[in-house]
């Protein structure tokens, strides 16, 4: 007995649309290619500009680096000319960082975990707006308001804590001291440091916070065990970014500080070391010839220090582990 099977004709499938993605292969669209090329070009452009600035500083500073010591202002050579300026730059920036970093952490914690939502939003805008204030305004504020108000406190520091090198005195009668300049710098770097730390605290996994509270932790214990460890690297990175800003500040320091040269840790006297940026701003208009090359050589040192600080900040931030709520 023979059985017959019916063969149904196989229909030809309709061709896929021209823009349909193939399985396993992403579609390369014109907009994606343009965006990728533009982003790559922007990154390369930044590197080219940075290399150009570095090359300009090296070329212009080269005559000063090999000049005789007698030809350099002061007659002691390029190293002894730049070293007091570098010391004053680092001293002012480090003291400003020591003042600003704890304040930035406290402000970020208050905005993210203590303040009501509306108040936190307003405070966030206010702190961010501080970054838009020109540095010369901070300098005028430090000269006219802050400096006179520090005269009596610095005299008290001299009388009671004069055995500490930072307050050895004699206290300045005008208040134009390294201490005032550092306080002004601390206010200036506060916005950028607070912004970085605040964003890190906001990214703390909600599950970690709720788990700590569910186990009986108080709000401060939850912050200490969950929020601060998660944002530790961002605290360091934001502080280093603020340090880089303080290192390069010019007008505020030039207006507030009354430099006299030399190297000293005394913060309340008139004998203050200047900073590299302020020294360039004050001396460049009247300089010519080799003096200009000497100032550019000091700028090269500041460029290198600032670059190292910012690279260190980025390295610290990039080392932060990515947590998820399931971890």
TrEMBL record:
Cell membrane found in the keyword field: yes
Question: Which Gene3D superfamilies is this protein grouped with?
Answer: MetI-like (1.10.3720.10)
Pfam families linked? BPD_transp_1 (PF00528)
Instruction: Map out region (Disordered) in residue numbers.
Output: 1-22
Asked if the record carries the keyword Transferase, the reply is: no
Query: Which keywords accompany this UniProt record?
Result: Cell membrane, Membrane, Phosphate transport, Transmembrane, Transmembrane helix, Transport
Where in or outside the cell it occurs: the entry states: Cell membrane
Q: How does it sit in the membrane?
A: Multi-pass membrane protein
Matching PROSITE patterns, A to Z?
ABC_TM1
Which residue spans traverse the membrane? 34-58, 78-111, 123-143, 178-197, 234-257, 292-313
Q: Where is the ABC transmembrane type-1 domain?
A: 86-313
Q: Which InterPro entries match?
A: MetI-like, MetI-like_sf, Phosphate_PstC, Phosphate_Transport_Permease
Q: What does this protein do?
A: Part of the binding-protein-dependent transport system for phosphate; probably responsible for the translocation of the substrate across the membrane.
Which protein family is it in?
Belongs to the binding-protein-dependent transport system permease family. CysTW subfamily.
Q: What is this protein called?
A: Phosphate transport system permease protein
Organism of provenance: Streptomyces chisholmiae
Lineage per the UniProt record: Bacteria, Bacillati, Actinomycetota, Actinomycetes, Kitasatosporales
């Amino acid at each position: 007995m023979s059985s017959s099977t019916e063969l149904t004709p196989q229909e030809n499938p309709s061709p896929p649309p021209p823009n349909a993605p193939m399985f396993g292969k992403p579609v390369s669209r014109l907009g994606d290619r343009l965006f990728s090329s533009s982003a790559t070009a922007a990154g390369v452009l930044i590197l080219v500009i940075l290399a150009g600035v570095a090359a300009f500083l090296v070329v212009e500073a080269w005559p000063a680096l090999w000049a005789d010591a007698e030809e350099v202002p002061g007659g002691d050579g390029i190293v002894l000319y730049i070293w007091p300026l570098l010391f004053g730059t680092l001293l002012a920036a480090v003291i400003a960082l020591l003042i600003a970093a704890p304040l930035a952490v406290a402000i970020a914690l208050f905005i993210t975990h203590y303040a009501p939502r509306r108040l936190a939003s307003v405070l966030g805008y206010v702190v961010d707006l501080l970054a838009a204030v020109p540095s010369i305004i901070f300098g005028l504020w430090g000269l006219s308001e802050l400096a006179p108000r520090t005269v009596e406190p610095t005299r008290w520091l001299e009388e009671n804590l004069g055995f500490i090198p930072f307050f050895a005195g004699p206290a300045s009668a005008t208040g134009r001291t390294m201490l005032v300049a550092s306080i002004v710098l601390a206010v200036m770097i506060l916005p950028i440091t607070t912004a970085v730390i605040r964003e890190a605290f906001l990214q703390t996994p909600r599950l970690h916070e709720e788990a700590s509270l569910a186990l009986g932790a108080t709000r401060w214990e939850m912050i200490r065990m969950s929020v601060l460890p998660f944002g530790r690297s961002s605290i360091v990175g934001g502080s280093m970014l603020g340090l880089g800003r303080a290192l390069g500040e010019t007008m505020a320091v030039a207006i507030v500080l009354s430099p006299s040269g030399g190297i000293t840790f005394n913060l309340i006297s008139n004998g203050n070391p200047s900073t590299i940026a302020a020294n360039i701003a004050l001396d460049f208009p009247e300089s010519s010839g080799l003096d200009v090359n000497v100032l550019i050589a000091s700028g090269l040192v500041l460029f290198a220090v600032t670059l190292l600080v910012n690279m260190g900040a980025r390295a610290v931030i990039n080392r932060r582990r990515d947590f998820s709520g399931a971890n």
